[in-house]
Design a protein that fits this description.
By secondary structure, the protein is of the alpha+beta class. It has two domains: 2-76, Beta-grasp domain (Ubiquitin-like (UB roll)); 83-149, Orthogonal Bundle (DNA polymerase, domain 1), CATH 1.10.150. It is built from seven helices and five strands. The chain has a five-stranded mixed β-sheet with strand order 2-1-5-3-4, with helices on both faces. The relative contact order is 0.13.
């Protein structure tokens, strides 16, 4: 019997202690944002944060995670306002999206521990594989997320879940104070 805290909730898994954390999260806790990619810890699609550090959940047994605090993509920010999530949306990083939850969790752990990472530190901390090759957009988003977390830049939060994409621009515009110098184009979104 293995006990840990998953997304702020105490969890008691009644599974074989050798079960990879990935399968406990997906199958027993129905947290399917953590993806199965390769099963050997190379791709990073299964990355979660364990006690504040990014780990490949396919390589950690639930016995090894005993007593740990696990955060999955579902609990990074319920309102999608974590700086990494905001930057990912702003820079339109995802293409197919399969790897993105793992990449976001790796970047969140990096930025939570180092709000001003160098390119070498980014390369060392974020080794996830993106089969679509969105690495240039990821790098831009990582730099943006770091600036946001340092308070140097501000982004409008993503619209809440359930907002129709066609209504998203109107939602953002409604939350954004008017720019005194802006023209009166109603289709223009004003951001800080």
């Amino acid at each position: 019997m293995t006990r840990m805290t998953v997304n702020g909730q105490p969890v008691h898994y009644r599974m074989d202690p050798r079960t990879p954390l990935l399968w406990a999260l997906r199958d027993a806790s129905n947290l399917t944002g953590t993806k199965y990619g390769c099963g050997i810890g190379m791709c990073g699609a299964c990355t979660v944060n364990l006690d504040g550090r990014a780990v490949r959940s396919c390589q950690i047994s639930i016995a090894d995670a005993e007593g740990a605090f696990i955060t999955t993509i579902e609990a990074l920010s319920r309102s999608r306002d974590h700086p990494v999530q905001q930057a990912w949306i702003e820079k339109m990083v995802p293409q197919c999206g399969y790897c993105q939850s793992g990449v976001i969790m790796a970047v969140a752990a990096l930025i939570d521990g180092n709000a001003n990472p160098s390119d070498d530190e980014i390369d060392e901390a974020v080794t996830n594989i993106c089969r679509c090759g969105t690495y240039p957009r990821m790098r831009e988003a990582i730099r943006l997320a770091a600036r946001v977390s340092r308070g140097e830049e501000r982004l409008a939060a993503a619209p809440p879940p359930g907002i129709d994409p066609g209504d998203a621009a109107a939602h953002v515009a409604a939350l954004t104070p008017p720019d005194e110098d802006a023209d009166d184009d109603p289709g223009r979104i004003v951001t800080d």
